[in-house]
Amino acid sequence: MKQKLNSMIQKMTLDEKIAQFIQLATPFYKGASSEGQITGPMAEMGITKDIIQNSGSVLGASGAQETMDIQTAHMKENRLGIPLLFMADVVHGYKTIFPVPLAVGCSWDPELAEKSAEIAAKEAAVSGVHVTFAPMVDLVRDPRWGRVMESTGEDPYLNSLFSKAFVLGFQGTDLTSDLNRVAACVKHFAAYGAAEGGRDYNTVDMSERALREYYLPSYKAALDAGCEMVMTAFNTVDGIPASGNKKLMRDVLRNEWGFDGVLISDWGAVKELIPHGVAADESEAALKAFQAGVDIEMMTACYVKHLKSLIDANLLDEKLVDEAVMRILELKQKLGLFDNPYRGADVQLEKEVVLSREHRQTARELAAKSCVLLKNKNVLPLKTSQNIALIGPFAESGDLLGPWSWLGSKNETVRLIDGFQMKIDSSKLQTAIGCEIEDGDKSQLEEALKAAQKADVIVLALGEHTGMSGEAKSRSNIRLPEIQVELIKTMKQLHKPIVTVLFNGRPLDLHGVIDQSDAVLEAWYPGTEGGAAIADLLYGDVHPSGRLSMSFPYSVGQVPVYYNSFNTGRPPENAQDEYVSKYLDIPNEPLLPFGFGLSYTNFAYSGARLSADEITQNETLQVSVKVTNTGEAAGEETVQLYVQDIACEVIRPLKELKDFRKIHLQPGETKEVTFKLSEAKLRYHHSDLTYKSDPGKFRIYIGPNSADVMALPFELLKEYEG
Question: In the predicted model, what is the mean pLDDT of the chain?
Answer without folding.
Answer: 96
